[in-house]
Amino acid sequence: MYQRNLSTAIDGYLSELTQEDKIKVIQLARAEFDYISPEEITEAIRQNQEDGYCSHGLDPNCCPLGCGDI
Q1: What is the span of the domain harbouring residue 25?
Q2: N or C: where does the chain have the smaller number of CB atoms within 10 Å of the terminal CB?
Q3: What digits encode the pLDDT tens for the residues 23-40?
Q4: Which keywords does this Swiss-Prot/TrEMBL entry list (predicted)?
């Protein structure tokens, strides 16, 4: 969840940058903060669903956000 939330927050700032600066920010964010692109987030969620995990990447019965109660 941290990775998705941080990456989404970074993406919010990218629209304000030049293309050159976007590339630099993404490279730094990948190296320092495990940034993943929106496409990678979508793929991770899809893979988690296939593997039986909740949208947070956890066993639904152990998710502190109540995914097993749905």
Answers
A1: 2-69
A2: C
A3: 999 999 999 999 999 999
A4: Plasmid
